Amino acid sequence: MNRENQNKTPLYDKLKQHEQQKNISFHVPGHKFGNVFPDKGKEDFARILRLDATEITGLDDLHGAEDVIFQAQQLLSEFYGSQSSYFLVNGSTSGNIAAIMTVVRPGDQVLIQRNSHKSVLHGIELSGAEPVFAMPEYEDATGRYSKITRSMIETAMHRYPEIKAVVLTYPDYFGRTYELKEIIDYLHDRNIPVIVDEAHGVHFKLGAPFPVSAVDLQADVVIQSAHKMAPAMTMASFLHVQGGRVPLSRLEYFLQMHQSSSPSYPLMASLDLARYFLAAFTKEQKSELMDYVQEIRTLLAQSSVFKLLPLSRKDDPLKITLIPHPSLSGFEIARHLENAGLFPEMATAEQVLLTSGLVPHLDRSALKKTLKTLNCQLKIKSSHDTIKRKNISIPALQTLEANYKDMSFKTPVFLPWKVALGRVCAQAVIPYPPGIPLILKGERVTREHYKQTLSLLEERAGFQNKEIELGMWVF
Ligand SMILES: Cc1ncc(COP(=O)(O)O)c(C=O)c1O
Question: What is the pLDDT of residues 421-439, one digit of tens each?
Fold first, then answer.
């Protein structure tokens, strides 16, 4: 990689130049670089609207890049060491869908993790492929189902030898990784492409103490939400390809299909700048960041209502997981934190996740005050109040009861829970965040699903299915 080149930001620079030229706009967008805009909000939007151009001469086109966007993507590819890299303006969601549709065809079997993000499931549904689900193993160290192993993948490949592609999530939402290299090597020996949803790992390229990036582990396609852990605007993401198993023209076709034909220039420029930021990140900045994270962890560790999950080399140090006192739930802790003015990334019944940025940014005294408020307001309960949760039992390998094609010909009905039991789920039940389905579309609804959903509702978990308290959509 040429270090000097990485100081360049061709797309951002071109937009600035265009702005400075004070050209006359007789083209869309209708806000005319911010001149036509409601007074209410004008001041806030003004700066960014000056960069909000469209595909006019000189500004290139994401869906046929050959000029400044091409150069910016080229620099991205050089930084990550990929064969080709792309900017995504519709999030990792669009990258996951396009990558999956590229590598599988209708009727193909594809192996995915049971705890995949819904965009992975949507990609498979759209592709017409048939998913085989591998359930990650429970890890005592994390208290979550976070471990995928080579032997799980081998078992799946023996049982379903027709599998054409594998889609893995690495790291999980909490920043936990696993031995991905040996899985990729095993699958590449069989010429099976591996797509990695690295939505939470865009910064792994910075090297230790961050886990190794899936791009460095030679995954065929790696999708990263640059907006999650790097300083890019929301929705702005990266996709990297390498290894020659994935046809680029087919991938580009699906990327066009699943993204706007008017991709946002501020979003793309923020990707250009995010890559520049990562490439310029120094050892000193990294060490300062780690000291800062340790300082925040030490502050948080003083709480009487939660403890911290220890970190190992498999964990992203920027993710801080709080483990509530056994008499409290993660949702309770999160609610009280929010009332005290601290908004976590997400909560589950058992854990609360906080994410740090890549540069020290917190006001320590405000954090101390918040924690003090929390400790005063939230009292641990007596030992007999300990919450006992039973985790749902999910088979290690699973296929769906009904395939997506058959389901597309059926009309779902909404039924109260008790009547829905035993029927096939027509609309995945998805606690949000993290957006990982509890009941999959095409899966038979069990009493265990029902109990798990009820207990999550009791603890006031968020669901995207608004009517879930009453029942569910089934076939
Ligand atoms: C593991 C995982 N994959 C994919 C996505 C989708 O990413 P985006 O929001 O960039 O579309 C998310 C979003 O939370 C995620 O957690």
Answer: 999 999 999 887 777 788 9
Backbone φ, ψ for residue 254 (5° rounding): -75, -30
- For tokens 């049971």, what's the residue? 114
Which residues approach ligand 1 with their CB closer than 6 A? Answer: 91-93, 96, 117, 119, 169, 173, 197, 199, 225, 237, 434-435
Structure tokens at 253: 């076709």
| Confidence check: pLDDT of 385 > 80 | no
Tokens of 322: 């709080």
Amino acid sitting at position 72 = A
Q: Which two tokens stand for residue 193?
A: 């492409």
Ligand 1: centre distance to CA 96 (Å) = 9
For the segment 218-230, what is each residue's pLDDT rounded down to a tens digit?
999 999 999 999 9
pLDDT, tens only, 1-35: 888 999 999 999 999 999 999 999 999 999 999 99
Q: What is the DSSP pairing of strand 397-399 with strand 130-134?
A: antiparallel
Torsion of CA 388, 392, 395, 401, to 10 degrees: 170
Task: Give, to the nearest 10 degrees, the angle between helix 283-300 and helix 364-377.
Answer: 20
* Alpha carbon distance 233, 270 (integer Å): 6
* Range in 112-121, 143-152, 297-306, 433-442 the model is least confident about: 433-442
- Helix runs in 165-214, H state only: 180-189
What is the pTM assigned to this prediction?
0.96
Helix, strand, coil proportions of the chain in percent (round to 5)? 40, 15, 45
CA–CA separation, 300 and 303 (whole Å): 6
For residue 340, what is the enclosing H or E element?
none
Contact, 346 vs 353, CB < 8 A? yes
- Residue 176 Cα to ligand 1 midpoint, Å, equals 15
